[in-house]
Amino acid sequence: MTDTSAAIEALPSGQRLSEWIEAAPIGKTASYELLKALGITPTKARFPGSAAAVSMLTPEQVVIMDAAAEQVAAGRSIAELTAITARPRTTANATDEAQSGAALLPRLEAAERAIASGLPLTTAEVAWILGVKPGATIGSTIARGGIAITHHGADVWSLARIKP
Predict the structure, then answer these.
(1) 14, 79, 110, 160 — which has fewest CB within 10 A?
(2) What percent of the chain has pLDDT over 70?
């Protein structure tokens, strides 16, 4: 193995936050506000030959930030996106609640918002909306109740309406 290939293998996965901000369809301030609103915390990584650590977004965070930035660039406010993503983050009682029929309207509204916005969801959010924890391999799509659920990566899902 040459020194070049060793350096390539040592690079952290994901994208530098500064590079993402530069390429984003929104400004720097809006990018940082979006990070905060979505609760995304970049990781710190050190590149070979670099004296200081840099902020990195994981591939999953990049997918979420890309989708959210597109929505903001299209005119949606960050507050609206925060309302869409403000759903339970744990599945401990989500399935029990869904099976009992409690909170059906908020789940239906959340599904509509997720479909309309195109924002990616976590496994916990999909479980809460659908009432069951989805299980699928990355890249596959499952259908339930007129909704197609696509698994994009570790804890990254999207919803779409199935057209009859």
Answers:
(1) 79
(2) 77
